[in-house]
């Protein structure tokens, strides 16, 4: 069951603390609340002013403010803190996402210098999780693990290792908050692959540290929400419209499009002039932020059911997989099979395997590629019962990678008779050759028999080293040609293909059944002459 919580936005844009609507007309806002451990109930906060306008709302629960005041309490104050969290949530409106603490591995967040071990943080989180979910009306709230400060190693554990130990110790889990920054204002740092020096040589040094967090999340939790609640240039914002903000949102959108994990927001730190990292009044930063919002980047939950029905079985390949060939070269999702050109040098049989690196829906996609330095022409198809004369539309998502360029093309197809996809009657749609981004390919065709085959196909013109396609989220639907929808193309097929006159075909069959063909007769020539006469 999918539950849409109050205070949810479909957009990636976000700010650390609210700004005027003109700065961010839509997106997410991170709010901060000091909780303490007073025996008095917390009066709560009204966030509905923003939630009612469509903003996503997230509240970070801070024990106390100040250097070593403590993002979480020491054990002797934990009961009081949890009770205050409970009453804060119960008395608040317009928010259903709560972050329990902030960067607990950072020494400045330790209560009176008392180190916060990851297992203790997990214990605090579980206590708050239970207190919030026990409240009527908050059963589906998201209680988020605290973000860990990247590159901070005050505990000597390592920031990713701290994160992993904290995850392993929790009993309950609703989602994650993460932080990521660059070391400077150069937009190129957003996509930099620069790594740390030993002993952290496997950790990103710039913004793509976010990928280290995502990689550290076990597959079991890939369906849980992730919120990037702080990002900046690791210094005062350079008041220059250099595209840093636009590039950052483009990067997160590209991540969401290419993988199974989804980041729901990226909040710029921070709007108000409370410290050196403020955005308020910096017109060039604001202009860059608004240019990024013009793209209207959105997140989608890839594990939600498709909004529209499809006539296919296993359209997103989330079912079982099987070996079509005993050598394990062709491994396909159930209800799908593969056809390919082979024994026609340089065409070779492709390799087809399940994939989780790049998806558009669910956790699995199909990855297919011919052997290195060979050509490939293949189709991954499903046979579907059809009604003769009915039009159908078949579509699927595809991602291409060809290095060096092999002129790799991908296309969707429908076989109107349900025959081989390499038969002459096969109808292929318009191809795409765009690389490294998901594209939607489609085809519209009319069925002529009781079955059709729909296929996802690819062919590379040059026998280069790498020609890989990924496929996901296939869909087959009825297509009505009633004068209001665009009329699908209907080219006249060559003789003997597709559009046969059923009356003439019946007469031809009747003639064949009456005619006795002698051994001396050229049967193929006779057949051709009868077809021409009909």
List keywords for this structure.
five-stranded antiparallel sheet; 24% strand; alpha/beta; disordered C terminus; 534 residues
Q: Spell out the helices and strands N to C.
A: EEHEHEHEHEHEHEHEEEEEEEEEEEEHH
How widely separated are the two ends?
58 Å
Average pLDDT taken over every residue = 88
Count of alpha and pi helical runs: 9
Percent of sequence in beta strands: 15-25%
The portion of residues assigned to helices is 10-25%
Number of strands: 20
What general form does the structure show? elongated
> Which residues form runs of ≥5 with pLDDT under 50?
483-509, 511-534
- Radius of gyration, Cα only, in angstroms? 29 Å
Biggest β-sheet strands, sense, barrel: 8 strands, parallel, barrel
Strand order in space, largest sheet:
1-2-3-4-5-6-7-8
* Structural class by secondary-structure content: alpha/beta
């Amino acid at each position: 069951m999918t539950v849409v919580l109050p205070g949810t936005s479909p957009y990636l844009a976000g700010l650390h603390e609210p700004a005027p609507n003109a700065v961010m007309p839509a997106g997410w806002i991170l709010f901060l609340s000091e909780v303490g451990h007073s025996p008095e109930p917390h009066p709560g906060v009204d966030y509905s002013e923003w939630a009612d306008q469509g903003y996503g709302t997230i509240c970070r629960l801070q024990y106390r403010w100040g250097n070593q005041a403590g993002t979480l309490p020491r054990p002797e104050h934990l009961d009081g803190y949890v009770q205050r969290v409970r009453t804060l949530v119960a008395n608040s409106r317009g928010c259903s996402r709560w972050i329990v603490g902030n960067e607990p591995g950072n020494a400045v967040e330790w209560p009176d210098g008392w180190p916060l071990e990851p297992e203790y943080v997990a214990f605090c989180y579980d206590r708050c999780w239970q207190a919030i979910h026990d409240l009527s009306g908050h059963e589906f709230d998201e209680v988020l693990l605290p973000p860990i400060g990247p590159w901070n190693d005050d505990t000597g554990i390592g920031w990713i290792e701290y994160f992993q130990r904290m995850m392993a110790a929790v009993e309950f889990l609703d989602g994650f908050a993460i932080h990521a920054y660059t070391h400077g204002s150069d937009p190129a740092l957003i996509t930099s692959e620069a790594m740390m020096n030993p002993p952290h040589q496997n950790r990103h040094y710039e913004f793509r540290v976010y990928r280290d967090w995502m990689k550290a999340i076990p597959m079991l939790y890939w369906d849980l929400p992730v919120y990037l609640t702080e990002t900046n240039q690791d210094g005062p914002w350079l008041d220059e419209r250099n595209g840093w903000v636009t590039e950052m949102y483009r990067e997160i959108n590209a991540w969401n499009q290419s993988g199974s994990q989804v980041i729901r927001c990226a909040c710029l730190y921070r709007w108000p002039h409370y410290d050196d990292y403020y955005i308020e009044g910096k017109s060039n930063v604001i202009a860059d932020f608004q240019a990024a919002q013009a793209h209207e980047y959105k997140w989608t939950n890839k594990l939600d059911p498709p909004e529209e029905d499809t006539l296919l079985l296993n359209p997103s390949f989330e079912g079982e997989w099987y070996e079509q060939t005993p050598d394990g070269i062709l491994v396909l999702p159930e209800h799908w099979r593969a056809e390919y050109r082979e024994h026609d040098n340089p065409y070779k049989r492709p390799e087809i395997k399940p994939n989780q690196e790049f998806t558009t829906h669910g956790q699995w996609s199909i990855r297919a590629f011919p052997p290195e330095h060979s050509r490939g022409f293949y189709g991954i198809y499903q046979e579907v019962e059809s009604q003769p004369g009915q039009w159908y539309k078949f579509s699927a998502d595809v991602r291409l990678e060809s290095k060096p360029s092999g002129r790799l093309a991908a296309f969707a197809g429908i076989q109107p008779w349900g025959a081989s996809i390499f038969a002459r009657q096969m109808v292929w749609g318009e191809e795409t050759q765009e690389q490294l981004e998901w594209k939607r390919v489609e085809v519209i065709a009319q069925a002529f028999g009781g079955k059709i085959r729909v296929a996802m196909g690819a062919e590379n013109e040059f026998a280069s080293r790498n020609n890989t396609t990924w496929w996901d989220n296939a869909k087959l639907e009825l297509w009505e040609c009633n004068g209001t929808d665009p009329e699908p193309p209907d080219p006249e097929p060559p003789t003997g293909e597709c559009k046969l006159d059923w009356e003439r075909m019946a007469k031809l069959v009747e003639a064949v059944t009456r005619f006795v063909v002698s051994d001396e007769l050229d049967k193929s020539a006779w057949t051709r002459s009868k077809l021409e006469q009909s």
